[in-house]
Amino acid sequence: MTLGVIAHLENPSYEHVRQLARRAEEAGADWLGAPDAFWWRDTWLLLAEAARVTSRIQLGPLVTNPYLRHPFVTVSALASLQGLAGPRVFIGLGAGGSEVRLAARISRRDAAERIEQLAELVRRVSSGGPLDPVSGRTLEVPLYPVRVTIGARAPSVLRAAGKVADEVLLWAVPNSDLERSVAMVREGYEEAKRAAPRGDQTVRPYPRLIWGPVVNTGPSSKALLARVATYAVLNNRSSVRRSWGVKPEDVDRIRELLVAGAVADAAALVPPSVARDLSADPDPEKAGAVAAKIGASGIAVAVTDLGDVEACVSWGRRALAATRLMPASART
Q: Which of 141, 176, 246, 323 is most buried per CB count within 10 Å?
């Protein structure tokens, strides 16, 4: 079972990321994921700085998307980071945040297909295959096998994760939608098994589930919860939004404000029901019971303030310990 740290520092500098990486490693975290946001510093440069000051903790983008960089460039960046961090590198993939569609004006309707293709490209190149099978052009930088983690919320991406991921990150998934999300992952996995030729021994094992709860434990986490709740209005199904009491006209206005960067104004339009559905119980034993119920084999904690690293990792460790105390009948 693993405990990861998701870097949720606002516009982190290189020094911020160096400090976060050192403190996460010293606190005992197993991995650190850095954001990939085009209005901030480049994720691969941030990860390179994290690699320079650590020796054990695993590192990777969480999450990069298949749209804003050509897949060949992503594979090259991955190999370049391995040159600094060695086998500690993983890759986190996702559809890209709402800003990909709203600010960059890129449709994400084929996100599931593109994520599958990128995961397959990474594995093909890491096993010695070409970047482009048609021309035969290869990557001239060594790329070794890496763990593929897919962050997913949309049904199609959850199913894609079930097909090709080593791990699925369920980050900021509403409590009311957790079990359905896990079922979508299972559906994708079973679909991949049915599609495989009979007797094929290369079918991937069922992906490990990593639960990334949002926990309101103080001022910094409360601010994170408000931001997550605001984006959740755009990133969840209409039926979930209706259960929260969010009106369609409010969704449109929140979208406009977020595109303009007015996050606080957008958050003011979000009803408290959204945050309640997104937040996990601050009691680690109760949170651990949820993780056990959905079959999670790891927990990811979001760090929004450098002073909270040790407390966040400690909370995550206690929640993980609680999952091991749950009886088998409580697990999926």
A: 323
**Number of alpha helices (DSSP H) and beta strands (DSSP E) in the chain:** 14, 10
CA distance 57 to 54: 7
Structure tokens at 175: 């409590």
Do residues 23 and 306 make contact, with C-beta atoms less than 8 angstroms apart? yes
Averaged pLDDT for residues 50-59: 98
State how far the Cα of 251 lies from the Cα of 42, in Å rounded to an integer: 29
The superfamily in CATH containing domain 2-217+281-330 is Luciferase-like domain (3.20.20.30)
For the chain, the domains span 2-217+281-330
Say what the pTM is: 0.93
Cis peptide before 125 (omega within 30 of 0): no
- What pLDDT score does 329 carry? 47
For the stretch 95-106, pLDDT in tens is 987 778 777 888
